[in-house]
Amino acid sequence: MSRFNFVSFFLTLCLATLTNSYGIKGVCSGVNTATGQRPFRQEFSKFKDSGPVFDLYILSLEQFQQRNQSALLSYYQVAGIHGHPYISWDGVQGNYQAGYCTHGSILFPSWHRPYMAAYEQILWANAQRIAATYPVVQRSTYEAAAITFRIPYWDWAINSTMPDPINDPMITVNSPHGLVNMANPLYNYTFHPQPSATDFPPNDSLAKYHSTVRSPDAAGQSQSSVSNQILQANAQAILVLSYQLIADQSDYAPFSNTGYTDGRGGNYNSLENMHDAIHAFVGNGGHMSIIPYASFDPIFYLHHANVDRLFAIWQAIYPNSYTTSEVNAQGTFTISPGTNDTLYSPLTPFHSNYNGTLYTSKTARYTRHFGYSYPEVVDWGINATQLSSNTRANLNNLYNPTGSIATRPLLHKRSNGTAPCARSNATTEVIEYQYSINIRVDKSALHRPFFIHFFLGPVPSSPAAWPTAQTLIATHSILYYASSITNIKRTTYGQLPLNHALEGINSPLDPDCVVQLLKEALCWRVQDFQGQHVDTGEVANLKIFVVGREVVEHGLRDRFPAYGEWSILREATDGKVGGLGRGEGM
Ligand SMILES: *[C@@H]1O[C@H](CO)[C@@H](O)[C@H](O)[C@H]1NC(C)=O
Ligand SMILES: *[C@@H]1O[C@H](CO)[C@@H](O)[C@H](O)[C@H]1NC(C)=O
Ligand SMILES: *[C@@H]1O[C@H](CO)[C@@H](O)[C@H](O)[C@H]1NC(C)=O
Ligand SMILES: *[C@@H]1O[C@H](CO)[C@@H](O)[C@H](O)[C@H]1NC(C)=O
Ligand SMILES: *[C@@H]1O[C@H](CO)[C@@H](O)[C@H](O)[C@H]1NC(C)=O
Ligand SMILES: *[C@@H]1O[C@H](CO)[C@@H](O)[C@H](O)[C@H]1NC(C)=O
Ligand SMILES: *[C@@H]1O[C@H](CO)[C@@H](O)[C@H](O)[C@H]1NC(C)=O
Ligand SMILES: *[C@@H]1O[C@H](CO)[C@@H](O)[C@H](O)[C@H]1NC(C)=O
Ligand SMILES: *[C@@H]1O[C@H](CO)[C@@H](O)[C@H](O)[C@H]1NC(C)=O
């Protein structure tokens, strides 16, 4: 097959001709249709060392970002699906001042799946064309790499530091013209031209930026190292939450989003709960932390590929639970607040073919439909029981190799709080206690986004020191953003683990002494994304409480711990502003 035929063969096969709508098929090259085997999306730290395919990724992304911002398949328009500008994409009209993205909704995981597939499909098509332009001696290597090209993900649970070289302004790759040192398309996206006042409202804090930024300083310069320090300060919490999200939640609705409530209360930890934290810490006042602008930062797609991966891992383990109906309190560009979202709700504006059929959670359910998988999910050639077992084992190996992550400190993070509890010398306990902080709050409480920092022990006097304080347990983030439909009161639920901060108390963590310690030493502070201290009393409908439960470890590599029922430890928060009191109802 000649080079030209080779490329056009795949382009025809996978993309067909664009007619009325842009069909998102994902990628079909490299898929064994007989066995169902598909190339993996790879973890970025490994992917970056993979040579030709990494070169193609960087060059494809650069081409994508350069595309005329008025083109349907430009980076600007595709990023613009998520939030600003509040305009239609691929002919799908909307009525509300909001993006298409679904948050605080049961559609949160499934909506982002075709979104990532569209991004992957666009980069893949670029990669095919670029591969075909390498000098003859390199061409077959690059064309082979292009066939299995899939987007990478950033596993922030394994290493919460943004991987190198994402924060390097320049990057060197082997291009068809030899080694080039170029502006790194993962570092920022530069608007060209600067969006108009109708696209980015001028009174939005981010509208003034010519490029995306992370932790911007007063002069508007990115300070990636500040984002990394915040991420590191929360690393243990992120890992524990990621593991438990999958190990402990077998029901899709509470797994899926921060708005879920069963009438008795929320589920507190959810895929979206973790996802919000990464947005807030990476952005920290920059684009990633403001949802309608987040998708312009190139790291958004590495983050969301990982969110999709946790979703895929969860699906492999719990194959029978999926999208049920849930009222969408928040609304989107096309969904009016109060709509009953279901398995059949259209995932606007993503078309599954060229005839205008929109995806639904039903049709976007499986990664195999889009032609990729993840290293932890090898779902071909085995039955569902085996897949579930293998995936549990893979997750244990990766996130809980010692079998004790649910309950024990990981890295002996110091807590300089008081430790009134005697160390126990018990060595054979299998039942351990686990503690978490639950947070319930009105998302629009302050009409701006904010952090709630939790501490065990003394709080630094300067708010600037809070996000990375020695005594920090972890930070919860509320990703509020203003729009015409977001002034509706909507309760959001979140959770943070506590055990990693209870160093100095050996297992078992006796509830009486832990409560005593928390009563004395647990406290919290509210801070907005500009770094300003906010009085906790100003946060409407804030309710913080500590919960504890027993956890039984099995020690089997394909089993998860058995988690007991949570009980509420009211004394730990009694009398604290925003805390649940002793006599108070939920
Ligand atoms: C982008 O495309 C629009 C519409 O086709 C055109 O008017 C404009 O000149 C193009 N901009 C650039 C920089 O090529
Ligand atoms: C985490 O990632 C950072 C950035 O890539 C790297 O410098 C660091 O060595 C990694 N840490 C570990 C423990 O692998
Ligand atoms: C964006 O990154 C490029 C290098 O990749 C740099 O030249 C440019 O100044 C950055 N933009 C801003 C506003 O910092
Ligand atoms: C920006 O201005 C618009 C129109 O005047 C207004 O509706 C909106 O609330 C303002 N947004 C902020 C964040 O001040
Ligand atoms: C939402 O739709 C589902 C499926 O059609 C239905 O069973 C459920 O009762 C509806 N819920 C509400 C609150 O309307
Ligand atoms: C699109 O519509 C045409 C004409 O109605 C039909 O032949 C074709 O099968 C449809 N394609 C898909 C992918 O649905
Ligand atoms: C799944 O496969 C395993 C291993 O081949 C087999 O032992 C088991 O019986 C199968 N389970 C079902 C439900 O088919
Ligand atoms: C712990 O607190 C003591 C007394 O306030 C102080 O001297 C010590 O430096 C602190 N240790 C750490 C690691 O912060
Ligand atoms: C634990 O063992 C040490 C020495 O082996 C002993 O001094 C201490 O009292 C024991 N602690 C408890 C709580 O039993």
TrEMBL record:
Record-annotated Tyrosinase copper-binding domain positions: 103-120, 297-308
Signal peptide: 1-21
Enzyme class: oxidoreductase
Catalysis performed (reactions): 2 L-dopa + O2 = 2 L-dopaquinone + 2 H2O; L-tyrosine + O2 = L-dopaquinone + H2O
Pfam family membership, one: Tyrosinase
EC number, UniProt record: 1.14.18.1
Organism of origin: Stereocaulon virgatum
Cofactor dependence: Cu(2+)
Keyword flag Mitochondrion: no
Keywords assigned by UniProt, alphabetized: Copper, Melanin biosynthesis, Metal-binding, Monooxygenase, Oxidoreductase, Signal
InterPro entries reported in the protein's UniProt record: Di-copper_centre_dom_sf, Tyrosinase/Hemocyanin, Tyrosinase_C, Tyrosinase_Cu-bd
Protein name (record): tyrosinase
Similarity annotation: Belongs to the tyrosinase family.
